[in-house]
Amino acid sequence: MIFQHQFEKGFSILEILIILSLSTALVISGTLTFSKVKRSEELFSTTLHIVNLLEKARAKSIANEKDRAWKVVIIIDRASLQDEYGNLLESYQLPEAYSIQGPTNEIIFKKIDGFVQECPSNCLFEVREVSGNLYHQFNILNSGAVEY
Known about the structure:
The longest helix is centred in the N-terminal third of the chain and has 50 residues, at about 15-60. The protein has a single domain (about 15-145), classed as minor pseudopilin epsh fold (3-Layer(bab) Sandwich), CATH 3.55.40. The chain has 1 helix and 8 strands; from the N terminus they run αββββββββ. The protein is rod-shaped and about 105 Å long. Strand 7 and strand 8 form a beta hairpin. About 35% of the residues lie in helices and about 30% in strands. By secondary structure, the protein is an alpha+beta fold.
């Protein structure tokens, strides 16, 4: 007796289920990775806004603009560029999901040399997700330069 194998065209239910489960796993993995990358980029952008304010304050102090020292005031969810008398020039509101912490809330740059008055050693600040584990640090050196 000769056995003939008959092959049916198409896929079995098991093959379809395997393909669907693998596809679902790939989509979920990609979505989670994209979400984390997006949050990380937003966090870095927030840090850059604050660093930009610090660099503006330092540049204005070095240039002795209006014959004043310039400062950045940092309060949990806001960074403000002000002159030494507290006159507001520019302000940046952190996105709702982020906060900032550091050793002082006022970074004053000296006239002419741009050195930092309140931080004799380095000042390490941290921009952090309020409900998460992502954070980015920047350091204000005694010279007034910002490392990030």
